[in-house]
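thought: fold this chain, then report.
action: predict
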Amino acid sequence: MMVFKYVWLLPLFVSVYLLYSNDYLNDIRLDSVEKWLNIVKNAYTNMNKNSNLVLDVNHKMFTSDELRKYTNLKDGLYISILGHVFDVTKGEKYYGPGAAYHGFTGRDGSLAFITGQFDDNGLTDDISSLSMEQIKALNDWVQFYNETYIYKGKLIGRYYNEDGVPTEEFYNIQQILIEAKEKQFEEEHKKRMFPPCNIEWKPDSGTVVWCSKKSGGIERDWIGVPRMLFESPSSKQYRCACVKLDSKEYEESKGMLKEYTKCPKTAIKCALQTNDL
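observation:
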């Protein structure tokens, strides 16, 4: 994750850590996750973007012309990703002249980290064509460079102005990352409410699904029964989920659950029929 410099984000990081701890996830409810995320998003949206910003005065603000000088071993090998500049000279076998990723040096080639298009059209800081998940993956690259190479400063342009103040584009990216985290939280919680089934396929018997106290890698004190769990009541996409029939979650999600054909309602194991595949 991108290393933010602003104090207001500290509670966000602490909360993310807590949400990922197993003990906390065992008790959490989806509505509380949504309330917490709404608080974060509202605080983010309503924040005055041009006041009380903590600027990084210890690092350099690069112009595009200045950054283009750092493409050789004499001056150094610098790259930029989402407006953050890193010294990658120690990785010369990857970024040095003639190496596979030399094209990243001296510029912000953020888009190419995802597309793998290493020409002038692909090596650009314009990532407007990327999906939410791709932007999240790009943000993971920022974490990698923060941990592996030397952070040198920021690039003046799409993401920061000459004073180091984040631009509207920067905040748009942060909003997308918050939405991606919200989606991830929801998916993780849904996985704990309805753990994936165990699945086995054999040439002679076909596909069999069943539930246990540790199906889908989710440990619990109940077994459940296999059901088709759809993304929405109108969706055709589904996965096999273990459902606790006497749970509140089952009662609230009946519209997205369907029994497997010719499988007894309370059976913990089902042999799938052709129309179930």
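thought: worth noting. The two ends are 38 Å apart (CA to CA).
final: tokens above.
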